[in-house]
Amino acid sequence: MRCGGVCRITVDSFGCELGMNTPAEVSLVEVGPRDGLQNEPVPTSVDFRVDLVERLADCGFSALEVGSFVSPKWVPQMADTRQVLDKVRRSNDTPLIALVPNMVGMNAAIEANVDRIAIFSAASESFSQKNTNCSIKESFERFKPVVECAKNNSIPVRGYVSCVLGCPYEGGISADKVIAVVEGLFELGCYEVSLGDTIGVGTVTGTKKLLLELAKSVSLESTAVHFHDTYGQALPNILTALECGVSIVDSSIGGLGGCPYAKGASGNVATEDVVYMLDGMGVQTGVELEKLVDISKFVFANLKRSPASRVANACLSG
Ligand code: HMG
Ligand code: MG
Fold first, then answer.
1. Which of 71, 102, 252 should be mutated for ligand 1, with most atoms under 8 A from CB?
2. pLDDT tens for residues 85-114?
């Protein structure tokens, strides 16, 4: 099979035939227009964001994060999320998600008619303070009315836990802390909780240990993984997570991203790299690599730099 100028070797058999315990299907959640663009040094235009969301909405992702309703003083890159949602052509196929930290954000999300919201906390107290100006406990106090309001408006709520494998301020984070926050988010009513390796320090061993512990109290079927790729460990970590029973993966087109409150953290794992790996394993995602590479070309021509995705660069150089 060819992608751009590069020959791809496709394994016909499923991973399980090779003795790998991986799912036959993986749901991909694309976070580039939010987690990616929130980290651009100069905020991108509404028109560019709309164009990107419309292109990605046509790819077959299980959900697509379009932006956040957070303080524009804290994250100016996401200030125009309302305008993006007003302008974007809606299709019913791919639900659009926006991040919401509190009731101010929730009211804005309802006015913008977003399909789903995501609430976000952390397994590290220091990160919670830096990111949202409150303790973990206070973040949950803020979430209670948000989730209640979401329920009343039939808006499904996704949950995030940051720093599950390490914190830029506290270093190592114990599994107990992660598990308590994950359980709290499910108890509140989240349909899915995404585990954020915010600064991309996780390794295969840490990932496996955490997921084996987590599986004792939580269904990994409703647990997503969200790896940033700072140390190049995201793909092996994802493979490990799949072998542990996870089948929902967050990724970002071209590897866009980082976190404004996690200095030095690089982008999320690139969607193209994840799809290439899963295609090669015969795991279905419903997302076509060729379309992603075209979108990566569009994004990085606009941003005037090369994608972080190894696969996109290989395909585009062919
Ligand atoms: P605060 O300053 O403590 O809020 O910020 P406050 O309640 O004291 O209000 C202060 C002012 O902000 C008020 O306005 C509020 O109305 C306004 P004023 O009276 O001064 O004119 N305000 C808002 N405006 C717009 N939208 C809102 C909102 N809330 C209050 N929702 C707050 C608290 C949480 C708002 C702030 O800390 C914030 O916006 N933080 C941004 C956090 C963020 O977006 N971080 C990046 C996303 S998380 C991430 O990237 C990690 C993830 O990818 C997973 C992973 O990788 O680990 C998800
Ligand atoms: Mg992130």
1. 71
2. 999 999 878 999 999 999 999 999 999 999
Residue 2 pLDDT level (bands cut at 50, 70, 90): very low
Closest by Cα among 293, 215, 265 to 59? 293
Starting from the CA of residue 268, give the closest ligand: 2
Q: Catalytic annotation on 259?
A: yes
Alpha-carbon span 195 to 226, nearest angstrom: 6
Please give the pLDDT value at position 266: 83
Domain total of the chain: 1
270 pLDDT exceeds 90? yes
What pairs with residue 29 in β-bridges? 63, 250
Q: What is the CATH number of the domain that holds 39?
A: 3.20.20.70
What pLDDT was estimated at residue 11?
53
Contact 294, 52 (CB under 8 A): no
Please answer whether residues 182 and 214 qualify as being in contact, where contact means their C-beta atoms are separated by less than 8 angstroms.
Answer: yes
Coil, helix or strand at residue 292: helix
Which residues form the domain of 51? Answer: 2-316
